[in-house]
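INTERNAL TRANSFER SHEET
From: sequence group
To: structure group
Subject: Regulatory protein

Please process the attached sequence and return the structure record in the designated field. Keep the field labels unchanged so the import script can parse them.
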Amino acid sequence: MEFKLGKEDAAKVALLKRAWGVDEAGVVHRLLEFFESGAGGPAVNPPAVNVGTVGVHARYGSHRIDAEFDPASQSVTILSGPAEGRYKSPSGAATAVLQAYNPGVAPHRNGWSFWVVDSSGARLQSLRGAQAVEGE
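Return from structure group:
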């Protein structure tokens, strides 16, 4: 059986693949087992990849870098490309992008102004709220 996923669902499957150390078929198998076991119950959603995460992106040169920001941990997960992976902070993820795409430049960037929220077009700083940290 083959099926085509939309961009957002494909990104979620890719995150589950990495988290669980399985291929696409393994992701489907684990999710089906979850529901067959009754663990989800009728009113419970499956374990979601991006519960509480916010889609963000950055443009660097001719590249668009798609990522997810987790407000709870303030981490950023870059979904694909040479800097793919989870970073502890927006600035750490921004630094990884610069190192990957332009190793000759000083890689230090303020991640709060580097990343853009997909849904609003505002800088990630807009989600920082009252927890702003001076100097970053």
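Handover comment: Residues 41-50, 130-136 have pLDDT under 50 and may be disordered. The beta strands are 54-60, 63-70, 75-78, 85-87, 116-117.
Transfer complete.
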